Amino acid sequence: MNGAGSGPPLLARDVAVEIGGAPILHGADLTVGHGELVAIVGPNGAGKSTLVRAVAGLQGTSAGSVLWSGREVGEMRGRELARVRAFVPQRMPVPAGVSVREAVTVGRSSHLRPLRRLTGVDRDAIGAAMERARVGRFAERALTTLSGGELQRVQIAIGLAQETPVLIADEPTSQLDLGATVGIATLLRELADEGLTIVLVVHDLALAAAVADGAVIVAEGRTVADGPPGEVLTAARLAETWGADARLSEHDGRTALHVAWLAATAGSDGAAESRSC
Amino acid sequence: MARRTLVFAALVGALIAAVVASLALGAVKVPFAEVIEIAFGGGEGGPEQQIVETLRLPRTVEAMIVGAALGIAGAILQGALANPLASPDVIGVTGGAGFGAILIIILFPGSIALLPVGALFFGLLAAALVFAFAWSGANRGSVGKVVLAGIAILSLFTAGTTGLLAAYPERAPSAIFFIAGGLTSSGWDELGTTWPYFAAGFACALVLIRPLDRLALGDDVAASLGSRPHLIRLAAAVAAALLAAASAAIAGLLGFLGLVVPHVVRMAGGSSSHTFVVPASAIGGAALLAAGDTLARTIRAPIEMPVGPFMVLLGVPLFLWLLRKAVP
Predict the structure, then answer these.
(1) What ipTM does the predicted assembly reach?
(2) CA-based nearest residue in chain B for residue A117
(3) Considering only CB atoms, which chain B residues are within 8 Å of A57?
(4) Burial of residue B148, with CB atoms counted within 10 A of its CB: 0-12 exposed, 13-18 middle, 19 or more buried
(5) Residue A4: which pLDDT band, with cuts at 50, 70 and 90?
(6) Which residues in chain A have Cβ-Cβ distances shorter than 8 Å to B224?
C-alpha cells in the first residue's frame, strides 16, 4: 500500500534486546518485502517473540536498527507506528461484556482523533475487516462465548481494522486444534495473496513450509538462516537447531514433518541440553 | 444496544426522582409541585423557597457531583487496572484523605474549615506516593505494581489515622461523621474551592474512554494501536485521584460507591464498553448518593445521619441481586 517500490517495508539489522539486564536477542536480522508472508521459526526461548515485538516497537532495543519504510522505529510516534503495522498478540485478554463488533471497532480507533465519532469510512473498514477474517456471522456475540479459533479470527480482524500494510502475528495457532489451525493458515495465506505483508511467528514447521514465502530461523537470540522454507528447513538444520531427527516433505499440496520421535541421537540430546543451560 | 439504552434511561429516571426528592424532603417538606416551580425559576419567595435554594440545592448538586465523580473514578480505575476490586482505595486516595481530615479534626479542631483542604491535600499526596513507587524502575506502571504500592500506602495512612484516633480518644466522635461519609448543608463554599479538581478529573475521564477500551483488549493490542499502556493507567489513576480526593474533601469517605456502581452498571447493561460504563456510572453514582443523602437526613429528621451507611443499604441489595445472575 504505502511506500510501494521504495525498498522493503521492514528492514531490521543487528537488533539486540536486553530485558532486566539479561540479553535476549543479539544480532537478529529481518527483511520483509511487500506482500510477503515471512514465518519466524525457532525453538522455545530462542527470541522469536522478542524479535517481532522489537520490530513492532512494543519492546525497546539496546542496539541495531529497525527501519519501517526507511524510518527508525524508535523515532516514530505511536500513532505513526499504528499506521504501518498491526500487532496480533498470541492471546489477548477476553473481557466480559464486549462483543466481537465492539472489539473490532477498537481496532479502528487508531484512525480516530480523540473524542471524534466513527465516520462512514470507519464503519466500512470495520465491516470489511470482519468480512475478511470471517467473523461477521458472530459479530454480535460476546467475546467470552467464542472458541479459540473464533477468538483468533477476531484478533486478526482487530488487526485488519487498523488497515496497515503489515500485519505481525505472534503464534496465532499455538493453542488451536487442527481444523482451526488450517482455517487460520488459509486466512493468512489469502490475506498475503491479496497484498498484505505478514510476519508470522509459528512453531509448526509443516505449516510454515506450506504457507510462507520465506522462513527466518531464530536460535539462541540470533537469526541463523533465512530463505524459502524448503531451502532453509533442511534435515541438517532441524537437527542442529531443534536437536531432532526430522525432515519436511511436500507432496500434492500437503506438507508433513516426519519425526523420529524416539530416536534422539546422543549428539542432538547434548545440543538440546547445552541450549537450555 | 437496546438493553443499554433501557438501563441508561432507567438511571436518568432514578436520578431525576432522587433530585426532586432531595429538594422536597427534609425537616421541612416542600410540595413536589413547588419544588419543580422553584427549580425552573418560579416560586413565591417564601421561607420554603429559601430552604430549597440556599440549603437543599447546593447540597443536592454536591451529592450529584460527588456521586458522579466516585462512580467515574471507580469505572476508570477498574478499567485501567483490569481489576474488579479497584476503587479509589486502591490508589491510596481514600486512606490519605481520611488521614488529612482526621489530622485537622483532632489537632486543629478550631480550624475545622481547613478539613476539605487537609483531605484534598493528603488524598492527592497519598496517590502521588503510589504513582512515584509504581511508575518507576522495571515493569513500571504494571497492574501488580500499582495495586501493591497502593495497598502499602493505604496501610501507612490508615495506621496514621488509627494512631491519631487512639492518641486523642476524646475527639474521636467528631471524626465519625467524616469516616462514615456525609454531606452538609453549607452552601456553595465547598464546591467553590474543589470545582477545578472535579472539572479536571471529569475532562480527563472523557478523553480516557477510548484508550480504556483499547486497554481492555490487553497491553499488546493497545500498543499495536499506538497507545502506551502504562501512560493510560497513569492518566486514569491521576483522574481518579483528583475526583476521589475532591469528593472526600466534601463528603468524607464513600469508597463503597466507587467500587460498586460501575459493577451494577456493567451487570445491568450487559456491557463493559467504556462509552457506556463511564457515563452510566456517573449518572448511577449521582442518583445513588442523592437518594442516600435524602434518606440520611429524613429518616430521623431533624437529626442528620451520615450518608455512607444509607447508600450501602440502597446499593448492596441491588448489587447482590445482579451478582447472582452475572457471569463475571
Answers:
(1) 0.90
(2) B210
(3) 223
(4) middle
(5) very low
(6) 56, 58, 82, 85-89, 159, 162
